[in-house]
Amino acid sequence: MNLNEEILTIGFLMKEQKIPDYIKRRIDLSKIDEIVKKAKLRYFHELTTKENITSAINFILGFIIPDNLDEDEWDTIMKVLTPILYLKYGESLEKYFKDKREEHNTREKSDTKYSFIKHDKPLGEIGWRGFSESFEYFDDLLSKYSTWVDVDWDEIKRKLDNMDSDGAIRIANIGDDNNRWGYNFSIYKKKIK
User: Fold this and answer.
1) pLDDT tens digits for 147-156?
2) pTM to 2 decimals?
């Protein structure tokens, strides 16, 4: 396909928002909504909304285009899908990131710390290996670690909010299907006094 044909094809696809069959056979769109949600959680940070959207779209492309394609085929699929994804999800991503930025800029000082903990033994046991990192806001934790473990983060946040005292929630165990790391993962909530 020469450049003019490619431009015409992309223009047509943008108008129609259709993915050609030769691409549909190569990509997996079965979990696209779930991937878009992950991209939203992962790519809100203190960049411009445009940069957040670009990062999110690239993240989505990385999930739906298989790694086993040769470089030319990967590039062709990426060039066709990028404008389609911008058309299909760009507006909702823009709204999400703008709303999130407004919420971020007006949030009050948190009275809670959230720690993301990667550990090989039960919490509290001496000699565990791994790490923990604490955040003043749950959204900041999500921006850094939401793609590490495949869980329903809204449900995790609800459970943490419903806890009456400080404590931890195990979100993934060694050997779980959604855990490729070989460690346990927990979120620890602690009230700041």
Assistant:
1) 899 899 999 9
2) 0.73
